Structure formats: structure tokens, C-alpha cells
Amino acid sequence: MLFKKLFLLLLIFTSAGLWAREWEGVYFEENTPPAPEPSLIRQTLARDLESAGYYDLLEWSRTLGLPEKGDVKELRGQLYTYYGITQEAPAPKKSKKTITIKSARTTEYFSLSEVEEKYILLEGDILLEMKDEEQNTKHTIRAQQILYNQSARTITALGDITYTLNEKGKEEVFTGTSMNFNVDTWEGLFFEGTTESGRTVENKEIIFYITGDSMYRSGEDAVILTNGTITSSDLR
Description:
This protein is of the alpha+beta class. It folds into two domains: 18-83, no CATH class; 97-231, lipopolysaccharide transport protein A fold, CATH 2.60.450.10. 25% of the residues lie in helices and 44% in strands. The protein has helices spanning 2-23, 38-51, 54-63, 72-83, and strands at 97-103, 106-112, 117-132, 137-149, 154-167, 170-182, 188-201, 204-217, 223-226, 229-231. Strands 1, 2, 3, 4, 5, 6, 7, 8, 9 and 10 form a ten-stranded antiparallel beta sheet that branches.
């Protein structure tokens, strides 16, 4: 009799365990979580695609039977197309270049509708300061007249030009009668220009003076002269 009771209890506990395992993870209708919204699925896919590396994207494409050629951008692009997701353009980076008009006797703003360009015309004892936070440089221009093309981001300066570059604790000065300057690349073309540059020769610091009918300074600090001379004596 005792054996039958023990057997019955064992059967009950075993059945209860099987019942629990059978229904484990099963939700009744009132507790069933809602299916994710399509927009949420797309957002999740987009995040996964953006965070995936080259080999992840390659394996992903291989699994879907897509071409396995191209760089990260191409692989990611074809996966966006496959899922019908529009790839959002990256947010434009905030410019770290600033232009400040320190002084000018007159300032005029105007635009040319024919070429859809906006300009600022400065005249009289001008001091213009430009800073590049990313490169940690400061550029200043002194002139009698400056025309700034806001659309093309170029500067044309006339009259008693003095351009000063402060970079990494060093100062470089260019002078000339006129100049053209690109704000994005920091390239400049000086006419009847003069500059000086310090160099160490045989453990001695020597100042070289450079002049030319025209003087082009690249964004990589290279100087190209037309009808130019280079000396180590003061020309002034």
C-alpha cells in the first residue's frame, strides 16, 4: 500500500514536471508580446549595418547570396538595397574654421544673381582673422581692400598685404601687393611677394628671404616661385 502511495506521488510530481517543461516559454494570448513594428525592425537593421565591419558585411552578403565584391561602403549599400532600407546621409560636420573681421572702415554685403554667389566687400585698414581649430592654426590678413566670396570661400586682397600664419608655435609672414586665398585648403597666391623662413643649417639658425613676381603657397607649406630669388641676407 505504501509502495502504491509513493508511486502515485512520484507520478504526480513527474507529471507536474513534464507539464511545466511542456508549457515553459509559452505565453497565453493576454501575455503574448506584440510583434515589433516594421519601423523598429528597419531601425535595428540600419544600426546593425552601420556597426558591422568589413568581414561581417562580407559574411552577411554571402549568407544572402549577394555579390562578395567591393569595399565596406559597397557591401553595406547592397545590403541596404536588399532590405529596402534608405541609407541616411551622414550629418554634416560642424565647421571648425572661423573667420572674424577684426577691423575695417566699411563693410558691404552683396550678391550676384547671375552666378548665385554671395560676397562681402571690406575696405580701409582691414584686419581679418581666420582660425582652424582642427589644425590648431591662425591666419591673419592685413590689407586695404578684401573681397570675400562666401559661396566659393575664396578671398582676394589688395593693397599693402601682410599675411601671417601661426602654426605649431611658429610664425610665417608673407607680404605682397595682392593675393588670392582659399579658406578651405589654405592655399594662397601672392603677387610681388616676399616671405622669410627660418632653417637650421649645420646647427645654425639661418633666416632665408624669398621674393618673386608671384609666390604660390600650398596647403602643405610648399612655396612655388615665378621669377624668384632666395637669399640669406635682409632685403629690406
